Amino acid sequence: MRGFFDLARSVNSNAIVSLMVARIIYAVNWYNIGSIFSLIALDFTENVAGLGILTGSFYLGLGLGQVPGGILAAKIGPRKTAIYGTIIASSACLLSGLVSGFYQIAPLRLVAGLGMAFVFAPGVALIAKYFGHRAEGLGVGVYNAVFYLGGALGLFGWAVFGSLFGWRLSLVSSGALGIASGLVMLFILPVDDLRQEFSVKRSALMKVLTDRSLILLGLKLFGITGGASLVTAIMVYYMEGTMQVSSALAGLIGGLALLLALVASPIAGRNYDRQRDASRPLFLSGVAMGIGLVFASITTIYWATLSTLIVGFCSGIGTTVGFSAAREVNAGGEYEALAVGWVNSLQLYSGFVWPILFSFIVISSSYMVAWLVAGFCTIILASCALMWRVPHRHR
């Protein structure tokens, strides 16, 4: 921890803090829908299928916006791109609390996902720059860690908030906080150092989008992100509905996934700085996550908690290693954010597909079958990914 603060003092500490705070609120707006969905479902007479639609819409927006966000970052700089994305996403979250019908929330979650897609990859590029050479993996790990802290706050804190004050005020308040964080970044983050003669070229874009190592990284993360999306989006509702667990306790247990990811992220980032190996940790974390998802099929609070802990820890390892490796492909270049965004886009489509398929299996069969299918699919994807070696890049 002392090393982290030494690094923070060596660069723009205010910029780091503003990025971290914005990242926490960003995560609250990402996850709080899952924690308050039971209240939304009660108002609009919905079930797990509705949660699958909202989760799928959000992840679809996240996936669709990654490449445009990376291109925009190359053109106008990661600072402006992250600020614009934060304000757009937060505004959509705020408006979600003002709707008159359930299906008005779905397009707003799509817009929220699009806006957040403009934030992540530029944020990774900025935090890596602020932490400096040979500590970029740690920077990405810390950036991921505070995201998981915000996610835990969204799942537990906003579950309590929603129970006390209603789901509408919950969404309005988190959206307003997000807009405020965007304005703070506008005044604090240093202006991007852009080359005046730089212009986005089609040939350069295609070089990034067809890079074999980036495509393989996206595929390696597909199972990890899909499995994590089920636990963070559906586990709370699953425990409330099948185990008669209170919203506060279910939110607390769901938040444990993100707290474990918080612990794993900086450790995985520092380990990547030392070894520069992505394949092995991605394989091991994927297999372990699949086992954790299988545990969720046992309908008791103890197994659900264990499943949540395993999936959260593996998610922190997988995403930190994957994004650190993606950033390294074009480190320091104008297309650094695009490289990270392209990998993120590929793996985020799993967050669109998996919740919808999961909710379909639940309705047509049972939660037990749905968790078993998700677990075995994750293990299979992780095993296949071991055969696809990501080329090592020397810097």
Overall description:
- By secondary structure, the protein is mainly alpha-helical.
- It has a single domain, classed as MFS general substrate transporter like domains (Growth Hormone, Chain: A, Up-down Bundle).
- The protein has 14 helices and no strands.
- Helix 2 runs antiparallel to helix 3 and helix 6 packs antiparallel against helix 10.
- It is globular and about 55 Å long.
Quick structural summary:
With 395 residues, this protein is an all-alpha fold.
CATH top-level class = Mainly Alpha
What share of residues are in beta strands? under 5%
The fourth-level CATH homologous superfamily is MFS general substrate transporter like domains
User: Helix content range of the residues, please?
Assistant: over 70%
H/E series: HHHHHHHHHHHHHH
CATH fold description:
Growth Hormone, Chain: A
Summed up, the domain count is 1
Structural class: mainly alpha
User: Mean pLDDT score, rounded?
Assistant: 83
Query: Ranges with pLDDT <50 over ≥5 residues?
Result: none
Morphology call: globular
**What is the total tally of β strands?**
0
Number of helices, counting only DSSP H or I runs of 4 residues or more = 14
Report on the biggest sheet: none
What is the end-to-end distance? 27 Å
